[in-house]
Amino acid sequence: MVLVFAVGYAGIIFEESLAFNKSGVAILMAVCLWVVRSIGAPSTDVAVQELSHTTAEVSEIVFFLLGAMTIVEIVDAHQGFKLVTDNISTRSPKALLWVIGIVTFFLSAILDNLTSTIVMVSLLRKLVPPSEYRKLLGAVVVIAANAGGAWTPIGDVTTTMLWIHGQITTLNIMQGLFIPSAVSLAVPLALMSLTSSEANGSSQESSSLLSSEQMAPRGQLVLAVGVGALVSVPVFKALTGLPPFMGMLLGLGILWILTDAIHYGETERQQLKVPQALSRIDTQGILFFLGILLSVGSLESAGILRQLANYLDATIPNGDLIASAIGVASAIIDNVPLVAATMGMYDLTSYPQDSDFWQLIAFCAGTGGSMLIIGSAAGVAFMGMEKVDFFWYTRKVSGFALAGYAAGIMSYLAAQNLHISLPTSLAEIPFIPGS
């Protein structure tokens, strides 16, 4: 099974060289792994039971992503995000660098890092003419999208996986990771502002394309309902106790009925309705997640991930170092299988819900991918949309992203240590009564 996984994953990593689509490779790998598992299991019934359990868990994530992507696509089709982009009016290169980063950071927390990257890079095409400076702004979008997606349960696929499976909870992950995520963005922005020649150039001329786009009828209403549906998913889970994907499907159903009602009889606006939006979402990406998660589930059922966890515990006994190493690895290897494997290696008895380990895993896996352009879905989307070269990103951006990643980890560890050691430190101060 390890051999099958290694061969399949090599096919995913080198998909462009081999001209094989990674989604097809992932699906084929998943089926092959479960066939091998069924042969090696005590009986076929045991393998089928394990597969049913894994499929139930994986389907929650797939349905969640399907609903979220569709909602965002409907809002985007109505030009709902124009309300955000219309308020970006600065012409100072340094100021625009920070504005784009901050807007993307919070947009990614509400939507997700991939969608936010697509929206913001599309915006940059209308704000800034083709140039090295626009590439740098696009790189800022990637760093900000990954940082913003790490501190909310709906901002990144890996954080969503941890949330759905109970490793983290909404309020604790937001409280614990907001400051480290903000630091991991602020440090690269500050370094770029000080050292990058592109950010210290002359004022940029904006394009007139942005003002020519018009919001679709009732676009503000669709934006409000769509964003409300996304944000209310954690509330729905808290109130009903049902899985998050049910809250996401509830929001999709409401938005579906709403768009059918407001565009009733308007045959020329069919592209604004849900059926057309479903045809535009990244179905290949969803199938890739399906294949990867099913593959990792087979390794977990066979006990392979538990053996790996025992080896890591014996070799690297520090959970913080393990989480940091996973973040570095996510710059090269997709963070979805890394986090899925980690969840299979360590259960809630090893590290309880909302422990420092799981929070650091969410942060490192989310932000570590910024160090290379191929390390995250946001980076791959940016590379494809702007035709950015791998080596340009490595030369111009990777060092900034690494500095932000390291600073974010240090800020998280410092905050946790401060919280633990603060009462003891105060007790040692001789001027405090009772010390």
Summarize the structure.
By secondary structure, the protein is mainly alpha-helical. It has helices spanning 2-13, 15-18, 22-40, 44-77, 82-85, 93-110, 113-127, 132-150, 157-164, 170-195, 209-212, 219-231, 233-240, 244-262, 274-280, 283-301, 304-315, 319-329, 335-345, 356-367, 377-386, 390-396, 398-427. Helices cover 74% and strands 0% of the residues.
Oligomer: single chain
The shape, in one word, is globular
The number of E-state strands comes to 0
Class per helix and strand makeup: mainly alpha
Count, helices: 23
Beta-strand content bin: under 5%
Family: Belongs to the NhaD Na(+)/H(+) (TC 2.A.62) antiporter family.
Keywords: Antiport, Ion transport, Membrane, Sodium, Sodium transport, Transmembrane, Transmembrane helix, Transport
Protein name: Citrate transporter-like domain-containing protein
Organism: Urochloa decumbens
Structure notes:
This protein is mainly α. Helices cover 74% and strands 0% of the residues. The protein has 23 helices and no strands. Helix 1 runs antiparallel to helix 3 (22-40) and helix 10 crosses helix 23 (398-427). It is globular. It holds the Pfam family CitMHS. The chain crosses the membrane at residues 20-37, 58-75, 95-124, 136-154, 174-194, 221-239, 245-265, 286-309, 321-348, 360-385, 397-415.
